[in-house]
Amino acid sequence: MKIAVFGATGTTGVIFVEQALKENYQLKLYCRPQSIVKLGELSSHASVEIIQGGFDDDFTPAVRGVAVVVSFLGPGLNWPSGNPLEKVMMKIMQTMRNEGVTRFVTMGTPTIADPLDKNVFKYRILVSSLKLLQPNVYNDMVATGNLFKSGNYDDLDWTVARICFLKSSAQPKEHIHVGYVGDGQGSLVSQRVHWVKFILTEILENHWIRKMPFITSI
Ligand SMILES: NC(=O)c1ccc[n+]([C@@H]2O[C@H](COP(=O)([O-])OP(=O)(O)OC[C@H]3O[C@@H](n4cnc5c(N)ncnc54)[C@H](OP(=O)(O)O)[C@@H]3O)[C@@H](O)[C@H]2O)c1
């Protein structure tokens, strides 16, 4: 199976690429030219094809011929206004439609509220703080969530894999919990390897299509 990966040069993206290659996937990695170096030897792996480009370039070469699209893209420091993440999600999904690719697993956070979430203080404080301190990030995450909730992309098999504070233990002591925000079992921490494991399991099992699970480590 061939997977297109957006955000492959990020911390989680690299972990995903390593694990997906161990599991014998073929990968197309959409990367900014200056960031390819972050992939190290992975960039020349026989099962890796690098497609160079940024948000403003054509995504078609990355999406053409794949079975699944995975995205680790999300807001970083000094995130601009104008909801660039929402726009890039729309562009990825329009390209998927053009290319007849239906399966999409992408990053979300508790800022994207799901009707199945419970209103729990610690997550509410988190989201309120983000709204106050990083309004561009908050607005973009809400707008991105609304895209999926609108029903306008329900011809695609999307999953918004929501995570909380990311950690990078190679062999975490915790185990993975997949549920909803405030379900009484989740935490505030998502180990990157658990997020990656969720995605690689989900693209085979398709349990969470058109859903927004919350993946944490407990
Ligand atoms: N860290 C946390 O606790 C936390 C919490 C909630 C959500 N998140 C989100 O989770 C995602 C993964 O986290 P991470 O720490 O693994 O990410 P990361 O190391 O920051 O990597 C982000 C990836 O997105 C790409 N990207 C970001 N802005 C871009 C732009 N304007 N144009 C093209 N590519 C762009 C980066 O490309 P380059 O390599 O070219 O820069 C990189 O591949 C992030 O998107 C972040 O917003 C993180």
Key words describing this protein structure:
34% helix, binds NADP nicotinamide-adenine-dinucleotide phosphate, 218 residues, alpha/beta, Rossmann fold, two-stranded parallel ribbon
Describe the structure.
The chain is an alpha/beta fold and 218 residues long. It has one domain: 3-Layer(aba) Sandwich (Rossmann fold). The protein is 34% helix and 21% strand. The protein has six helices and ten strands; from the N terminus they run βαββαβαβααββββαβ. The strands form three sheets. It has a six-stranded parallel beta sheet with strand order 3-2-1-4-5-6, with helices on both faces. Strands 7-9 form a two-stranded parallel ribbon. The protein has a two-stranded antiparallel sheet with strand order 8-10. Strand 1, helix 1 (11-22) and strand 2 form a beta-alpha-beta unit. The longest helix has 16 residues, at 84-99. It starts with a strand and ends with a strand. The model has no long low-confidence stretch (mean pLDDT 98). Bound molecules: NADP nicotinamide-adenine-dinucleotide phosphate. Residues 7, 9-13, 32, 35, 38, 54-55, 72-76, 107, 109, 163, 165-166 line the site of NADP nicotinamide-adenine-dinucleotide phosphate (NAP).
